[in-house]
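User: Okay, second chain of the day. Same drill as before: sequence in, structure tokens out.
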Amino acid sequence: MSKGLQGKVALVTGGTGGIGRAVCERLAKEGAVVYAADLSPGPGWQGIETLRLDVTDEAQVQAAMQQVARTQGRLDVLVNAAGIEVEQTIEHTSLEVWNRVFAVNVTGTFLVSKHALPLLRESAGASVINFGSYDGFIADPGLAAYCASKGAVHALTRAMACDHGPEGIRVNAVCPGYIDTPMLRSFFRDHGDIASLESAVRDVHLTRRYGTPEDVANLVYWLASDEARYASGQLWVLDGGLTAQVQQMKL
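Assistant: Same drill. Structure tokens below.
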């Protein structure tokens, strides 16, 4: 392994979830000191320290950054992976649900990034990786609030890259498609026969498979590393070719 993040300090929100955990493990394997921040983080695991963090609570975000400041003095990599998905059209989405989706997916990304800036400025070359979605470009049925929130994350990513690039802070977004996580498994369980759905999902991908958390972690690692030092302000779609095709022409 290249140890391409040796000596770097990273914080990952949603760090104990399916994708977040894989990201934490990959960054730690590459030599980074990693903080996995989540609502119920539990004990840390090899090379990774956990922080209890509700990304919608500004006081908790500030406290988390203060802890990193006390122990590390800087932050080199910030991964905003915390997110939620609610399956509803706008007709059936309450204002409470709408606000909750935006609070976690958008406001959480804003708050964590905002309060991380002083630590990111102490890095010799900081990288922020937000989590968008292919649903921020095209839409799946019944995911109105989620799609809207991810479109907002995409716009925020570009704005942050413009504002903070001159300070040596790169900002990009990873935009996954179908990834084999507990969230996807829950979707399969809620919509009928699991085996048939798994097969159908695979068939609409050019690669004839959906992604794994490790696939996402590979891209996050590259964006975090100095190998991506010229990459900023971009939305990196990782979807097995799903959005490269015209779906209505599939026979």
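The beta strands are 9-13, 33-38, 48-52, 77-80, 126-131, 169-176, 235-238.

User: Thanks, on to the next one.
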